[in-house]
Each structure stands twice: as C-alpha cells, then as structure tokens.
Design goal:
Elements (H helix, E strand, L loop, with lengths): L8 E4 L8 E5 L10 H7 L4 E5 L3 E3 L2 E3 L3 E3 L2 E2 L1 H22 L6 E6 L1 H12 L6 E5 L17 E7 L7 H13 L3 E7 L7 H14 L6 H4 L1
Parallel strand pairs: 2-3, 2-8, 8-9, 9-10, 10-11
Antiparallel strand pairs: 1-3, 4-5, 6-7
Helix pairs in contact: 2-3
The protein binds D-malate.
C-alpha cells in the first residue's frame, strides 16, 4: 500500500507492452485493492493504477461527497476531480507510464468520478469503461470529446442508479463527440459475469487503437 502522491493507491506495472494503464476506481465502500482482480481480468498485462477515494462516508471510502443518495456535493466533486487528475499526472511521472494511454475503469461512485474527469479534463483519459454510472454534474460548457471510446454497462433494475440518469450521461458524452457504447441488461447494481466478459472484449479491440502522443505528432 502506497500513500504518497496524495492518495493511498496501488500501482502495478504493465507486462504486455501495450503501454495502456487502467485507472481503476472503486465504488462506495471499496478500496484500492478491490477491483485489481477485475482489472487484471479485463486487460491482462496492462498497467494498473488504483487509488482509494479520499472521502469517508461513515467510514466508507468514496471519491467525492454526496448529500444524499444520488445527490452530489458539487463543490466537493469538482475539487476531488481536479485532485484525482493531478494524482494521475503525478503518478505517470513517478512510475513512468504513458500518460497518453490512461483508460478509466470505474464502478458506481468510481464510474461517476471517471465521468466527471472526462468532462472536466478532456484528453486526460483516452477511453473509459463505466459500470453503473450516472450524471456527475451537468456541464455548462460542452467539452470536446471527439472519438473518445466509452463503454457503459447499465442495469435496468439498478436501484442505486436510475436508468434515465444513466441514459442522460450517455447523451451528454455522445453530444460532446464521444463514441459511446451503452449496453443495458435486466440486472441490478452488482456487476455480472457477462458484463465483465463484454468489457474485456471491448478493451481487447479498444486498447490496441490507442496511439501515443508521439505517434500523433
Ligand atoms: C454515487 O454516490 O456516486 C452513486 O450514488 C453510486 C454509489 O453509491 O457509489
């Protein structure tokens, strides 16, 4: 467990030479270890950067404060999102991974902070897998997300994440130019084996397409 760079986190170097780093973001009550097996299953050999959310809700780690279920503390969300973006940039320097190939994998609260990062720091994340995400905030200015690949996996029976809210997030991202693939299933909040398999397939196609900054000129 490392606690420098401002976040308690785990970093596992990549082994497959793809240069991709998965930024792994847990749900409410999770911690930095929890989704590492999932990430290794989704993209074997990719580097993994997994921070622990710094907000504590009665002891449950989160990535930003909420006032009630589904009602977010906007000011804290903005602050925490910038803080997370700075952490990713500092971690790239410290560990030497390619900042132009960072792909978010977030679940629930982690997916929401990933969505917030996409909206507030366009270009930082090169792709994202959002499991059970909702709108973090309505952006006042539409960012340019041209061609950003985003996979969203949502449950029609999710009691934590209202389906119309997930759809709204997909619309916001698509209107900004992202290449959104929103997949619905008749499931609830917990992630299912089938969705993990679909995300693995999606990443298998998406990761090799990420080109480094140098290659783009
Ligand atoms: C959130 O607070 O980000 C969402 O309601 C999902 C969650 O509880 O993690």
């Amino acid at each position: 467990m490392m606690s420098d760079l401002g976040f308690v986190h785990r970093y596992l170097p990549g082994e497959d030479g793809s240069g991709a780093t998965l930024l792994v973001l847990h749900g409410t009550g999770g911690k930095e270890e929890d989704l590492i097996p999932l990430a290794q299953d989704l993209a074997p050999g990719a580097a993994i950067l997994s921070p622990r959310g710094k907000v504590s809700e009665y002891g449950a780690p989160r990535f930003f404060r909420r006032l009630a279920e589904g009602v977010f503390d906007h000011e804290d969300l903005l602050f925490r999102t910038h803080e997370l973006a700075e952490f990713v940039e500092a971690a790239a320097v410290q560990y030497g991974f390619d900042l132009s190939k960072v792909v978010a994998v977030g679940y629930s609260n982690g997916a929401n902070v990933a969505a917030s990062t996409i909206l507030l720091h366009p270009g930082l994340l090169r792709a994202a897998v959002l499991f059970r995400a909702m709108v973090p905030f309505e952006p006042e200015v539409t960012p340019d997300l041209s061609g950003l690949p985003v996979l969203m996996a949502a449950g029609r029976m999710d009691r934590m994440i209202p389906p119309d809210n997930t759809q709204r997030l997909a619309d916001i991202l698509a209107e900004a130019g992202a290449d959104v693939d929103l997949r619905w299933r008749d499931v609830g909040h917990p992630l299912t084996y089938e969705e993990v398999g679909e995300a693995r397939e999606w990443l298998t196609v998406t990761l090799p397409k990420l080109s480094g900054v140098q290659e783009n000129g």
